[in-house]
Amino acid sequence: MGSQALQILRQGVWAALSGGWYQDPHQGAGVNALHLYLWLFLLGFPFTLYMVSAAPTPPLAVYCPVIAALFIVLKMVNYRLHRALDEGEIVERNANEHMDRGGKYNALKTKYIKERGGADSNTHKAHLGSEGISKKRSTRRTSSTTSVKSRARVLSLDSGTVACLNNPNSLMAPGNIKQLTTSKSDLEAKEGEVLDELSLLGRASHLESVTRSRNSLPSQAMFPEGEELNRLLTIDTDLLEHQDIDLSPDLQDRMQSQEEAAQKVKQYYRFWILPKLWIGINFDRLTLLALFDRNREILENVLAVILAILVAFLGSVLLIEGFFKDIWVFQFCLVIATCQYSLLKSVQPDSSSPRHGHNRIIAYSRPVYFCLCCGLIWLLDYGSRNTSSTRFRLYGMVFTNPLLLLSARDLVIVFTLCFPIVFFIGLLPQVNTFVMYLCEQLDIHVFGGNATTSLLAALYSFICSIVAVALLYGLCYGALKDSWDGQHIPVLFSVFCGLLVAISYHLSRQSSDPSNERLQSDLIVCLVIGVLYFAIHVSTVFTVLQPVLSYILYALVGSVGFLTHYVLPQLRKQLPWHCFSHSLLKTKEYYQFEVRNAAHVMWFEKLHVWLLFVEKNVIYPLIVLNELSSSAKNIASPKKLDTEIGALMITIAGLKLLRSSFSNPTCQYVTVIFTVLFFTFDYKSFSETMLLDLFFMSILFSKLWELFYKLRFVYTYIAPWQITWGSAFHAFAQPFAVPHSAMLFVQAAVSAFFSTPLNPFLGSAIFITSYVRPVKFWERDYNTKRVDHSNTRLASQLDRNPGSDDNNLNSIFYEHLTRSLQHSLCGDLLLGRWGNYSTGDCFILASDYLNALVHLIEIGNGLVTFQLRGLEFRGTYCQQREVEAITEGVEEDEGFCCCEPGHLPYMLSFNATFGQRWLAWEVLVTKYVLEGYSITDNSAASMLQVFDLRKILTTYYVKGIIYYVTTSPKLEEWLANETMQEGLQPCADCNYVDVDPTFNPNIDEDYDHHLAGVSRESFCVTYLNWIEYCCTRREKPLDADKDSSLVTLCYGLCVLGRRALGTASHHMSSNLESFLYGLHALFKGDFRISSIRDEWIFADMELLRKVVVPGIRMSLKLHQDHFTSPDEYDDPTVLYEAIVSHEQNLVIAHEGDPAWRSAVLSNSPSLLALRHVMDDGTNEYKIIMLNKRYLSFRVIKVNKECVRGLWAGQQQELVFLRNRNPERGSIQNAKQALRNMINSSCDQPIGYPIYVSPLTTSYSDSHDQLKEFLGGAISLGNIRNFIVSTWHR
């Protein structure tokens, strides 16, 4: 625990404050020294230049080129070294060459080595004369080593490699190719010093001159000029580190051991400095990664260099401009150093990193945000000093006031100086997340768009909104330039209004992946809508009927919205207003114990659909057009915003109000009514026309709703009478959080403004603000990859049976549930079956065994994009407690404080009412009907425990084989096959008996006790009647006499099938565990032909695939039927019809077979499988039976801020704080917030859901019940079909 805390403080806290630098005890002194000096240089260099330079130009002229040169050299060398590891050439040196180098340098130290000089000189000559002694091999690195090293080693250049210039044919292109493998010695730790090229050349030259002065080496004339230069480039840092001349015996022993080690072959990489100049380097991947982060692409290196230069340039500009004084200059230089150092060695993991392991994107966060803040500081300062006479004023506030701009500039300066704290807390996300968040927030709050599913989708939606505004702006500007009067509105403005409604309708119906069918429908509908609203607007109805029309429209939107979005949803809830004990508007399925049909469409559901249709397609467009007509000229007047800015604001406000009304009008009526009342009766003088008032109040109300949900989550979570402490830290944090309630409220307001999660720290009562996220929340596109036979190797399927755990096998049911929701979710939401909903809402679907969290992400006009997260069937203890909380009713509660006086009829007790209001969730529906599968699992061990039951299974196995061979269309071909006839020749003898030990009288019905095996005679006695009956059911009957070839084939196949079962059971069929193992092996198709008597089957393997495998699978189903009607299948007719029926209506397959998944997703009526579960020490076999039917779910709505906060807390705790405790306090059950269920649904490995669906879009056109009374998509084909059907009627 102490070491983990120190690691967090070192790699988390200190590294976040310094930008990535920290003292790593697991690295060598050279690595830590290099990091320290580099960080000090990046900090001290700009600060020193600023302090010593009097003129502003020298710091800028010196600082930026030095930083550019430094980063170019470091990035280029780092990239080249990684390429050398990936694709570089490898050279092996033998003992003689290594001793050559050792003799040359060790001659400086002892007489013993000096005496070896002659031999070494001879070695040199031999090396020059022949290349046979030096063995050089090269290869291409295909993969980097992934071995774990106990200590990391710094980059070292070993003397065992010779750099060469003069013989490129022999040295630069070796002929022998060898794959390099990382040996144990290569993984050992080694401390050295990092030397650049110049220092290496200098030290080499120095040592060479010393050796010449002592005459311990051959003369210079012995070596060619290029060879001598390459020898100077060959340096061993181990030898350079020892410069003492100690002649002690210990040192001599050490040198002797070095000589023995030199006998081994060493491997080096060729690092090419110039086209014909290379040096040998000896290091590994972890050594290089310990020095600097790896940039895999050239573009990444270029981007890092550009960002480093930009940081230096912008930082220098701000220092020159004098924005910082005194100690703040040093603080600003510290910020610059952290931003630049993170490009070399980033913080891993960062506090805002969404994933475990190395995050390549997070390294660019600090410099990018630094550049943005510096640019913003400069722009704000420039704007404060160069403000024009035109002042932009809204609601009494002058936004071009120099004092306001200076205050904003100072705020950004303070924020920039706090970068170390900001990144330590994790208030800023990685760059791609920020871009997606920014585009999404601007599109939602400014243009009325929807949430998006990816970065590209966010950019696409944002660009579409910009293009729409640009197209509409010209029409609006032209109309405003035309003449206006009290009773006349230009026709061009009516055209603008018609196009505005049509384009808003089209944009509201677009998802991240628009389909052609919807585009075709929108083309027709948009034309109709544009013409219709143009005609309405041009009729001057919005000018003649004022102000009566405005009051009527306000009254309509208030009454219709109140009825549609408040009264009806409350009446349909399970506990209306948390006072009534039952729903006041019940569905037909409410009192049904088991739902057998699709949900019946009730009258109030139809009413809800039509009210919603009228509200968003009639009332809201009329209100917006009414405000456009009455406010446009006033907005564009010189007293307000003038024509240019006024036209832009009119276009943006109209587009935003219409798009948001079309997409999700749930809370629009509250905004409209409040805005009208507030600016009509309370603060009429502050009104900036009702159009702009509605625009800005819609943004304000979305933030207020978010603040309301956050505060409700916080108060619910920390309520002292229901707090559940998951650890000792929770008990400590509970009273500690009380004095900080005011700060908590400020955090909630700030997080609501920026739409950031407010997460409980380590699951406690202390809340902190996380970084901004899009509505999608998770930055990774994670979804479950099911393990089956289509994506695993055959060897692993036969030996280890991958994917045999319950979670992997059960994930298919959540996948099927996702498909069902894809067809029905959008229509059910429009029918009001899930109550009110908005972007980002989270729901839990709970049934007997399925518990799934549904996250609504993108909500458009007639579409919903969602993601489903399935939890474990048999969850943990904490999960079970929370499942009980959402499934148990409170109708029987009779408590009132401390007593139990009871409650009024159909009402909740006081305690139940109070408790329901202090939950972060509520039950909306108890009988939500959805198509799915009922799952029945029976223990195969209990069904096959006794020998009689195993004998019945074997009998059905034999009869199944006979059925499939007689009904096969290839039967005649098999009977005429000469190879088969030859292999079955012994079986044709009427006296033949198979005495294989696998046959057992306890299991085989046709076992002959006298002959101790299965004879042909005993087989015919038992199964000849069944063979004859199956032949009579063929269209072309065959001879089924006792001596016929058909009986011989059936006998051979049945013996083979049972022998395969015995082989798979290891010839221990009497043992239940072995029998089940063999049965499961045959069920999944693993047939092992081990007897020479069965090799005739290889003549046509279709016999195994089409006869034996279906036979063993069908026998399992027939064995199950035997328990319901033991003697029914004694009649051949009944048995035959049963097999035919099962073939048509039942899919029997192994769950690892892709056919199983295909059958489930294609809604097959029934499925059966034999499951072998090996999980958590269990080893059991189950018979799984699936029957398609309508399932009943409870729909629980969860506070979306509760979900976002708990998700953010888990991500921070596991990724940044590295808490790996499986029983950590943050995942203990908390019924008031469903903490365990929500945290379990996080993306793996943060959570542990068994299934996470891809982002799935549901369209209203796919809902059959909705199309019956509302109609389907309007397309040319549907119009043609309607006309033709009407004509024929």
TrEMBL record:
GO annotation, cellular component aspect: membrane
InterPro entries: Pecanex (IPR039797), Pecanex_C (IPR007735)
Transmembrane segments: 36-54, 60-77, 298-320, 364-380, 414-439, 451-475, 487-507, 519-536, 548-568
Protein localization: Membrane
Pfam families reported in the protein's UniProt record: Pecanex_C
Membrane topology: Multi-pass membrane protein
Keyword annotations: Membrane, Transmembrane, Transmembrane helix
Region (Disordered) location: 119-151
Residue span, Pecanex C-terminal domain: 1039-1265
Principal location: membrane
Family: Belongs to the pecanex family.
Protein name listed in UniProt: Pecanex-like protein
